[in-house]
Amino acid sequence: MKLVRLRDDARPRIALTLEGARIEAQQGDTLLTALLAAGAGYLRESEFEDGPRAGFCLMGACQDCWVTVVGRGRVRACATLAEPGMEVSRG
How many other CB atoms are there within 10 angstroms of residue 40's CB atom? Predict the structure, then answer.
């Protein structure tokens, strides 16, 4: 599933990668917004076997949106701004 932007589509575009694939985001997007809007669909598989997860609380309190950013380590995608050139993986 891909998120569709309904408004605020005029911000400058930035490029980053998700597991080696180039994706585009808008300046000011969180990583979670950038990844889901680019069609990532999910960020991790649930440890409780109830399917893929793509964020839950959206305020940095839960454990559902951890991603790894080269040079930064594990970060919460919902609380980290996307930056040009970021290399992100789900692991």
Answer: 24
